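Hi again,

Forgot to attach this to my earlier email, sorry! This is the prediction with pyridoxal-5'-phosphate bound. I've pasted everything inline since the attachment limit keeps bouncing my files.
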Amino acid sequence: MRDYDVFTVESKADVLEKSREYWNPGKTGFWVDTGVDLVIDRREGYYIWDMSGARLIDVHLNGGTFNLGHRNAELVEAITTGMRTFDIGNHHFPSSARAALAAELVRWAPPNLTKVVYGSGGGEAIDIALKTARHATRRRRIVSIAKAYHGHTGLAVATGDDRFSKIFLADRPDEFTHVPFNDLAAMEQALAPGDAAAVIMETIPATYGFPLPAPGYLEAVKELCESHGTVYIADEVQTGLMRTGEMWGISKHGIEPDILVTGKGLSGGIYPIAAVLVSEQCAGWLTEDGFAHISSFGGAELGCVAALKTLEICGRPQTRSMVHYIADLVGRGLRDIQARYPDWFTGIRQNGVVMGLEFDHPEGAKYVMRHLYETGVWAIFSTLDPRVLQYKPGVLMTPELCEELLERTEAGISGAWAEVRHSPAGSRAPLAGRAR
Ligand SMILES: Cc1ncc(COP(=O)(O)O)c(C=O)c1O
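Structure tokens for the complex follow:
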């Protein structure tokens, strides 16, 4: 009997059945039909265990949430100690935990960012960033990238793909302009009228499969923003916290964004928290009406405790060296595998441990995902480009684990290739499951 055998579920089949009935029939059905019937049970470091007992190396990490591993011992210790003093706290009042984290985030931020606003998750933080830009510019229009993903809250969802906004009648084409990624002319055209409050950019668009910005692209977008009086918002939810080998991916471009958003991994995967780092020029509303954004759980004190420890771990010189080491080791291993399957495994997108693996099939990453699942690796396809597998090693992985990961990865890639090649309808056969 485990500590948490207190739930009223009998078996994995029971969990799946109850999930279909009471929780989310669409999501549950999708995974079961796709052949990834994962019900995460035990979790430790970079391993997760399915309820069947099967062990998987986690390189999905839930978008970097588990960057430091599942239930990282230092984080568990910090939060356990924190619980002797803190709970969520009262968001209306100043607090030692919130003040300490804000000061630490500012210390790690690009020098122009001087204020911190908290949310409970990434979407809320993006909403705060967009509201902040609107307040600072007194403009309404927001420009984002087609196939961007900034979350599903009220404003954030309108910056992203129609699939997620239209279903809730939340698309607002008059206020939200989408332009193709890496297309500077389109960006220039979108900003030319001089009425855009903000350009919001993931430093590397995650859900689109981590296509890398063309050299000079982000820098040029920032310059365009400056010349049109538009705020540049860097969404660092997936690229921050040392995943590119620097605390923030945007710093590698020498860009000082007007606003920077962090979430996911900031919580250490232990207690939810997200944060918006804001320049003095954009922070006016915090003085004009400090109650203008209210969130009971935004900046929860236990989240601050987790985030402080996360920043400490990410900021250690050993962590930075480890990221460079892992990026090099895994990058080389992947290129070796690619050389053995050049017609199938067609591309590697990489910046640090942010990686997207491209396959020569419109849904290639779904096949690879399923085969990896069978060979003991959990990595997820890119929702907005299912040719590409999101492949996100953790920043504290050991060399031995990286080697094991590469071995299993090759087995999964090879298995998927055999299936695609031998499927009756040839390499264009659709995968079971209802993914769109
Ligand atoms: C780049 C990016 N921004 C924002 C979000 C939204 O974060 P959350 O799911 O915590 O609302 C996500 C979530 O995947 C993301 O990948």
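The pocket of pyridoxal-5'-phosphate is lined by residues 63, 121-123, 126, 149-151, 202, 206, 235, 237-238, 263-264 (CB under 6 Å). Residues 317-340 form the longest helix (24 residues).

That should be everything now.

G.
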